[in-house]
Amino acid sequence: MTLLSLPLGLVAAVLLLAAGWLAGVKRGADAREQLRGLTFLQGREMQEMRERHAAEASRRERLLKTTIEETLAPLVRRDRFDLDLSRLDVDAGRRRDLGLLLDKIAEVGNFSTVVLADEEGLPLAANGRGSEVDRRAADASLVLLLADRLGSGERPQPRAMVVHDSADETTVCRIFEVAGRRLMLSATTTDGRLTPTALDPVLVKVVAMLAPSE
Questions:
Q1: Helices (H), the chain
Q2: Distances (CA, A) of 15 to 20, 26, 27, 28, 120
């Protein structure tokens, strides 16, 4: 009985060791599988993070580009405006061509109405497609009166005003003088980004036409 139990004990020990080894192998395989799964998840998270960062960087780049374009747009339009008007030929004293000049100003500047008026509020010229010319010209006397009030005393005299109304129209009014006579050039548009100096480039053309011919 003792001789038989010894081999059985050895077999049992071997089987126990084998079972332990197999269990260890399985645990190792499970651990490696878990590690591979964790590595895969970490890799996917890193990829998703890189994609999110790339998308955010792209969004910021687009936003920056849009902001730069919007910031430079008025300057670009101003340069084109100046360039187009510089190519327009005018003859001194040819007041009959004022309407054509104002048509060109309206076309280049995308203005709906351009009016030249004197300080009594009388229209001297307007673009062909302008609307409410008489009323807009009459406004010139009010603008000039307001400019006088704002520039009274030792305060500097206003040269331009910008008005934005409830109809979402923006009008820039530019005050200037020709031969001691005060005049006002006004231009109206739905573009709310007009500046007080928007009409400055055209004044030399207008003044040239109004100047007395020698």
A1: 2-86, 98-109, 133-150, 200-210
A2: 8, 16, 18, 19, 118
Closest C-alpha among 91, 42, 81, 54 to residue 212 = 91
Closest CA to 172 of 155, 159, 182: 159
7 φ/ψ sector (left φ>0, alpha ψ -120 to 50, else beta)? alpha
pTM of the model: 0.59
Output DSSP code: residue 95. G
Answer whether 208's CB lies under 8 Å from 118's CB: no
The whole-number pLDDT of residue 146 equals 92
Spell out the domain ranges in the chain: 1-87, 92-210
CB 106 within 8 A of CB 127: yes
Q: Mean of the pLDDT values across residues 27-35? A: 72
Bridge partners, 60 (sequence order): none
Give the model's pLDDT for residue 5: 60
pLDDT band at 127 (very low <50, low <70, confident <90, very high): very high
Name the CATH topology of 92-210: Beta-Lactamase (3.30.450)
Instruction: Determine the average pLDDT of the residues in 140-151.
Output: 91
DSSP lists the bridge partners of residue 118 as 183
